[in-house]
């Protein structure tokens, strides 16, 4: 490949490689200089015309770009990386042969998209450090000790002591031969640098007293008692047997003699608890595992607000790249604020109206969406238009761009099985695979003839299709406000205008009510997602038009869900709702999405450019189910025969209790600092105590701090399918270290290492927390005896006998 830089206008021949374990993409220059890119930081790969093309004339000449028969576009490869969706770097390559870049692009993304890339075991992350050290060799082909100090910067003296314990040089100008630092020596180095006294304690409590090892029987008992979900059926999920655990001893025990004897040492226990068998996440929930054949309204849909903005709502920069990044992150509903373009081009634009945010061309946004829509997920994408283009010509242009650029991806007609009739359910995500749906106002009020009579200035009484049914005022739940993006229809005023006023309106290029031709162009593209002004839950139920959607600001939606929670849930069983941030969030902050998920709102739209706690929760939850952007709602939020009130505790089938002990941390900071951990439960309002925090560590040790505290108890989690645990590590003084948000239904019981994520949900290599988690069925105190009697009758009756003997005595 050639590597070229737009900034320096230079091109250099390089060799591009991926290390054998798939941790890093790296390229070597002829000078032997090496550049390394962490695979987890890669967000996209682009080829052909979507890759970056050299701008300066010098580079264009080097690559024969302006030749009539240039094959340059068959050789391009751009790799996009960055710590978040806004701060991006583009690495540009040109291959010597055609179509080489294409296969590289596909293979790189296959590694990036593998769920285990982000959710690897603790040991895999430790292995990653060794791989990097062995890639960064000096001119003599050795590992500079300086690099080891840089990799573990928190306590230099401890690093020196650990190197000495392995009989390795420890001077900052020394270097280590890679052969002298194999995996076995690296493990010894880590055990000396980061001893694990808390795991030694666990080991001691489960092995033969006075013997420094665990037998196969002890290990099997430990796995069944501590690492296994107590709710599993023994017949369907048989417990581990001693002969099965021999393979684990062979895999993790460092001593060959112990392996022959079927024994596990304390060090073997450490590596076993760092292995993939003890991942805190149920990996089967990361892949696509849910039923995707239910109506669209039965899913939570990953949704973005003002997608084009990279920063604030008032003066931020707009970019088509944000559409790509949101879609690549699994978002399935993006927003386009469309405004009229200025002469002479009259190209429609996207911007945040009446603010100082920059503009982008509508066409550029559509091209970005077309290229990125189905890279991460094949399930349908919804384009939510906020349409302020009051020009028939420009709206026709918008519709034409959608048709030509999206092509067959655009759903222009309803599916035969799902006509747009009252009572007919919406199609499923599976029915709409690979399709783009448009949410734009659909004009059904004025026919073509009426348009002509309007032009002649006649008084017209337009038909208003969306007439609310006459009802008693006290029986009706009125929503009052109109959603921002639903401009009031102005048809009712037209009858009162004289010819002069109509001409004046037309000379100003009209208002929403006059743009019938334009509306017809865009209207014809709208089918299953038709926005209307919300009247009331009763009116919606009577009309039963399941293809109709209403948008609510967070304030309006909060008002409705607190006053009418059951009706809101019922509404969301049938049809869709979209929630978006209130207009005063000029800093692009987000509201907590949980309360709107609790009533079944499908499109809870957030500002994707702001990685605050709400967005972290959204990113973490939608990582599951194959990152497809759709999560099936709980059956209580789908079935018409079940009533669900998120504020009530009645009628819920599965209630669980959770216990979480924060035991220790590993490599939490680059500095020697005191640290603490916070744990929070997101769920239904009636779930028990939600937030805990550990004490600050007694000493400034960030390499292996230990907390000896009472377990955090969440004794009642009402609907585990809706709940998630957020665990955050902090430095003293409140500096963020890393966090993890995990859905309760995807958590494994037992001792686990939790590898932390950055604020933008990217995996961090170094920091982890070691915890003990227990998830079990919730049992009210009054039923405790009966539960024991049912689960273990022999034990129960023997206890009863002992009690009666004591009473007699």
Could you walk me through the main structural features you see in this protein, from its secondary elements to its overall organization?
This protein has 809 residues and is of the alpha+beta class. It contains 26 helices and 30 strands. The chain has 5 domains: 2-113, Roll (PH-domain like), CATH 2.30.29.240; 147-278, Orthogonal Bundle (Recoverin, domain 1), CATH 1.10.238.10; 296-534 and 611-637, TIM Barrel; 656-778, C2 domain (Immunoglobulin-like); 783-809, no CATH class. Helix 15 (392-406) runs parallel beside helix 19 and helix 25 (784-791) crosses helix 26 (793-808). The radius of gyration is 31 Å and the shape is globular. It starts with a strand and ends with a helix.
CATH H-level superfamily title of the largest domain: Phosphatidylinositol (PI) phosphodiesterase
Class from secondary-structure proportions: alpha+beta
State Rg: 31 Å
Strand content of the residues, in percent? 15-25%
Strand order of the largest sheet: 4-3-2-1-7-6-5
Shape: globular
Instruction: Give average pLDDT, whole number.
Output: 84
Q: What is the CA–CA distance across the termini?
A: 88 Å
CATH top level of the largest domain is Alpha Beta
**Topology, number of strands:** 30
H/I helix tally:
26
For the record, the count of structural domains works out to 5
Share of helix among residues? 25-40%
Uncertain residue ranges: 446-518
In this structure, how is the largest beta sheet organized?
A: 7 strands, antiparallel
Q: What would the CATH topology of the largest domain be?
A: TIM Barrel
CATH architecture assignment of the largest domain: Alpha-Beta Barrel
């Amino acid at each position: 490949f050639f590597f070229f830089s737009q900034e320096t206008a230079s091109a250099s021949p390089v060799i591009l490689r991926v290390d054998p374990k798939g941790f890093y993409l790296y390229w070597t220059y002829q000078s032997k200089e090496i550049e390394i890119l962490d695979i987890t930081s890669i967000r996209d790969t682009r080829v052909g015309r979507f890759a970056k093309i050299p701008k300066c004339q010098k580079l264009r000449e080097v690559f024969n770009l302006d030749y009539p028969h240039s094959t340059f576009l068959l050789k391009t490869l751009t790799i996009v990386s960055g710590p978040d969706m806004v701060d991006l770097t583009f690495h540009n390559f040109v291959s010597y042969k055609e179509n080489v870049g294409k296969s590289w692009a596909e293979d790189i993304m296959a590694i990036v998209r593998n769920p285990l890339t982000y959710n690897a075991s603790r040991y895999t992350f430790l292995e990653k450090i060794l791989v990097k050290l062995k890639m960064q060799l000096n001119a003599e082909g050795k590992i500079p000790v300086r690099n080891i100090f840089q990799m573990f910067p928190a306590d230099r003296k401890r690093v020196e002591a650990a190197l000495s314990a392995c009989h390795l040089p420890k001077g900052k100008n020394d270097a280590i031969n890679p052969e002298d630092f194999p995996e076995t020596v690296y493990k010894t180095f880590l055990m000396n640098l980061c001893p694990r006294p808390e795991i030694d304690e666990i080991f001691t409590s489960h092995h033969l007293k006075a013997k420094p090892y665990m037998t196969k029987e002890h290990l099997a008992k430990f796995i069944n008692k501590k690492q296994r979900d107590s709710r599993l059926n023994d017949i369907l999920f048989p417990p581990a047997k001693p002969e099965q655990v021999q393979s684990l001893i062979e895999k993790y025990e460092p001593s060959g003699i112990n392996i022959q004897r079927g024994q596990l040492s304390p060090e073997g226990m450490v590596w076993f608890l760092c292995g993939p068998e003890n991942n805190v996440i149920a990996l089967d929930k990361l892949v696509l595992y849910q039923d995707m054949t239910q109506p669209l309204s039965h899913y939570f849909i990953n949704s973005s607000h003002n997608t084009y903005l990279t920063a604030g709502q008032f003066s931020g920069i707009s970019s088509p790249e944000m559409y790509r990044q949101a879609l690549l992150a699994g978002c399935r509903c993006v927003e386009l604020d469309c405004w009229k373009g200025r002469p002479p081009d009259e190209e429609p634009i996207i911007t945040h109206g009446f603010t100082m945010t920059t503009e982008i061309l509508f066409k550029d946004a559509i091209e970005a969406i077309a290229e990125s829509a189905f890279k991460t997920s094949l399930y349908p994408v919804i384009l939510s238009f906020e349409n302020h283009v009051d020009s028939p010509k420009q709206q026709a242009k918008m519709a034409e761009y959608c048709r030509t650029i999206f092509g067959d991806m655009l759903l222009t007609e309803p599916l035969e099985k799902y006509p747009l009739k009252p009572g007919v359910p919406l199609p499923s995500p599976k029915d709409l695979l690979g399709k783009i749906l448009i949410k734009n106002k659909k004009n059904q009020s004025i026919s073509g003839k009426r348009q002509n009579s309007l032009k002649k200035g006649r008084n017209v009484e337009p038909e208003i299709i969306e007439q609310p049914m006459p009802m008693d005022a006290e029986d009706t739940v009125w929503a009052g406000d109109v959603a921002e993006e639903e401009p009031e229809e102005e048809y009712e005023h037209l009858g009162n205008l004289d010819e002069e006023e109509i001409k004046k309106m037309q000379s100003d290029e009209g208002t929403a009510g006059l743009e019938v031709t334009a509306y017809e162009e865009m209207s014809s593209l709208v089918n299953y997602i038709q926005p209307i002004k919300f009247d009331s839950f009763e009116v919606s139920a009577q009309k039963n038009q399941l293809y109709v959607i209403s948008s609510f600001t967070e304030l309006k939606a909060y008002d409705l869900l607190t006053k009418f929670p059951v009706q809101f849930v019922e509404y969301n069983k049938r049809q869709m709702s979209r929630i978006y941030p209130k207009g005063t969030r000029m800093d692009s902050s987000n509201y907590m999405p949980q309360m709107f998920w609790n009533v079944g709102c499908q499109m809870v739209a957030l500002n994707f450019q702001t990685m605050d706690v709400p967005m972290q929760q959204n990113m973490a939850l939608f990582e599951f189910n194959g990152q497809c952007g759709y999560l099936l709602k709980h059956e209580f939020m789908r079935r018409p025969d079940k009533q669900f009130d998120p504020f009530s505790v009645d009628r819920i089938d599965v209630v669980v209790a959770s216990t979480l002990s924060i035991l220790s941390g590993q490599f939490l900071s680059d500095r020697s600092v005191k640290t603490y951990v916070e744990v929070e439960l997101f769920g239904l309002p009636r779930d028990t105590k939600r937030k805990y925090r550990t004490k600050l560590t007694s000493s400034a040790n960030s390499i292996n701090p230990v907390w000896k505290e009472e377990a955090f108890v969440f004794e009642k989690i009402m609907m585990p399918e809706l709940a998630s645990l957020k665990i955050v590590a902090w430095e003293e003084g409140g500096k963020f270290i890393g966090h993890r948000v995990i859905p309760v239904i995807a958590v494994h019981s037992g001792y686990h290492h939790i590898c932390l994520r950055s604020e933008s949900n990217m995996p961090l290599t170094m920091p982890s927390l070691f915890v003990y988690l227990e998830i079990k069925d919730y049992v009210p105190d009054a039923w405790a005896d009966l539960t024991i009697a049912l689960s273990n009758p022999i034990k129960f009756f023997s206890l009863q006998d002992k009690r009666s003997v004591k009473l007699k005595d």
